Amino acid sequence: MNLNEQQSSLQYMWERDYIYAVNLTVKGFNIDLSKISTIFTSIDLSNNNFHGEIPSVIGKLSSLRGLNLSHNSLTGHIPTSMGNMTSLEWLDLSSNRLMGKIPNELTDLTFLAFLNLSHNQLTGPIPQGKQFSTFENVSYEGNLALCGFPLSKACNNDGRKQSSPSVDSETNISFGWKVVLMGYGCGLIFGVLVGYVAFRNGDPKWFITLFRVKYHRRARRRSRN
User: Which residues cross the membrane (predicted)?
Assistant: First the structure.
């Protein structure tokens, strides 16, 4: 009798657990689930109009396997407590207004196979090691102030984005040419003014004499060399 009651109760609960259906975005793919089990531990709150910061209490969801908060208006930093969600296999926080650095605590998510932090306002170096070594550029695109692997932008020792050496060399070359052109321009203007004054006064002898002296000095230097 007791056994039958337990079996009946379990059967009732089992059937009741499958009366819901939902559409999930898992690892970038839309999946329709017509029956949901209580052991399916994923949360999809994407494409809503959520504002504010992600609460740090979310780190207590240590059994969660998937979390999608993309395409909202979330602000603030990524909570460091998310490093406690050690069962997480996929995480999508893309298309929000999250800022600050990516917490190094996320490297503790050793089961994380999919990560999308694109199109936010994140800054600083990307954490390295463990699962983060497997993610590609697409996981971080749209965050112009991020640097480090796998992006082509290197970071300085203090974590700031380092400018490209080619850009620096081009800047120096451009500056050098500007100085040269300014020197030629000033010399040309000075020469024209001196010649104009000399010939206008009708006595260019001193100008010609000065020119001859300089010419002979240069000729002597060349003959010595």
Answer: 175-199
